[in-house]
Design goal:
CATH superfamily: Aldolase class I
CATH topology: TIM Barrel
Bound molecules: flavin mononucleotide
Strand order of the largest sheet: 3-4-5-6-7-8-11-12
Radius of gyration: 20 Å
Oligomer: single chain
CATH class: Alpha Beta
Number of helices: 11
Number of domains: 1
Distance between the termini: 48 Å
Order of helices and strands: EEEHEHHEHEHEHEEEHEHEHHH
Length: 319
């Protein structure tokens, strides 16, 4: 059974990629993931705020940013970790930057490349709360950041997006034109809850479940016929069935984090066997034979199709 898949121009032996997370903080853990069947790993992000951007001059108590030493890996330590991963792993590994404003973090990408990163994932996470900032201004800055980043290195850049853009399709194409080799769908928003006893905001990190995949499947199906580059899904891949659905809607790779935190590296071989079993049952011997089969390529009017499905679902419910 051939599970090989291209991702960002890198030949992966299977679609199972470890998503950005603390797993690569420890070379031994990264090696365990490789031995368990991971086809590539992604390091945790370095944040633009770690590069002395203006935000550091803001009163920390108001902004609530972590102190510099509170970050798990500073830029210099990150490079050392990257070099150690390079020595230890035979699979590709992806560095991660998190930022969307111009700044020195962009030129740091060259150092990531020189230290041996096979690709960089750029996470464009931000929550715009300023009412004077228009959506197109935000997106122009994102595109400019991608343009600057792709122009500064030779390795491929993947862009991790949020689902909350008014025209994701237009933005996706613009990011590709700016040089992105692939998109990662989608960022999860870590939404704080409220502690009613203490009457205060309670930050929390909840792991995902498969329900979160559905939003991603819809956008994989819409974007995959429009883009020439790669698509990875992050958010809600927990089972072999989730993996098959992502591939059918056009993914080249599935990123795993929550499922690994819950079950450990051994779950990768469970997913792999489940994928092989499904392919065998449907007479497929390679992923290319069915990737994107359920995308909207053959749909002459994707917007009308989406709207028709929406109306049909609402009409189907009787009381
Ligand atoms: C503990 C933890 C740390 C994470 N760190 C990062 C990070 O540094 N950069 C990033 O882009 N995403 C980070 N993520 C988000 C994951 O890469 C992933 O997008 C998200 O968990 C959804 O995938 P999942 O459903 O497989 O968990 C982190 C997630 C977790 C749970």
């Amino acid at each position: 059974m051939n599970l090989a898949t291209p991702y960002l121009g890198l030949p992966l032996h299977s679609p199972f990629v470890v998503g950005a997370s603390p797993f690569c903080d420890d070379v031994y853990v990264a090696r365990k993931l490789q031995d368990a069947g991971a086809a590539a790993v992604t390091m945790r992000s370095l944040f633009e705020e770690q590069f002395g951007l203006t935000i550091w001059h803001a009163p920390k108590s108001a902004a609530g940013y972590p102190e510099f030493a509170d970050y798990q890996l500073g830029p210099e330590r990150y490079l050392v970790q990257l070099a150690d991963l390079k020595k230890t792993l035979s699979i590709p590994f992806i560095a991660s930057l998190n930022g969307s404003h111009p700044g020195s973090w962009i030129s740091f990408a060259q150092r990531l490349e020189n230290a041996g990163a096979d690709a960089i994932e750029l996470n464009l996470y931000q929550v715009i709360t300023d009412p004077t900032v228009a959506a197109d201004q935000v997106e122009k800055e994102m595109i400019a950041a991608v343009d600057a980043l792709t122009g500064s290195v030779h390795i491929p850049i993947a862009v991790k997006l949020s689902p909350f853009h008014p025209s994701i399709a237009q933005l996706a194409v613009a990011l590709e034109l700016a040089g992105a080799s692939g998109l990662v769908l989608f960022n999860r928003f870590y939404q704080p809850d409220i502690d009613l006893e203490e009457i205060k905001v309670q930050p929390q990190l909840q792991l995902s479940n498969s329900d979160e995949l559905l939003l991603r499947l819809r956008w994989l199906a819409i974007l995959s016929p429009l883009l020439r580059g790669s698509l990875a899904v992050t958010g809600g891949v927990h089972t072999a069935a989730d993996t098959v659905k992502a591939l059918l809607t056009g993914a080249h790779a599935v990123q795993l984090v929550s499922v690994l935190l819950k079950h450990g590296p051994g779950v990768i071989s469970t997913l792999r066997h489940g994928l092989e079993k499904w392919m065998d049952g449907h007479n497929f011997s390679a992923i290319e034979q069915f990737r994107g089969r359920l995308n909207l390529a053959r749909c002459p009017d994707a917007a009308a199709f989406e709207r028709a499905n929406y109306i049909r679902v609402l009409q189907s419910r009787k009381v």
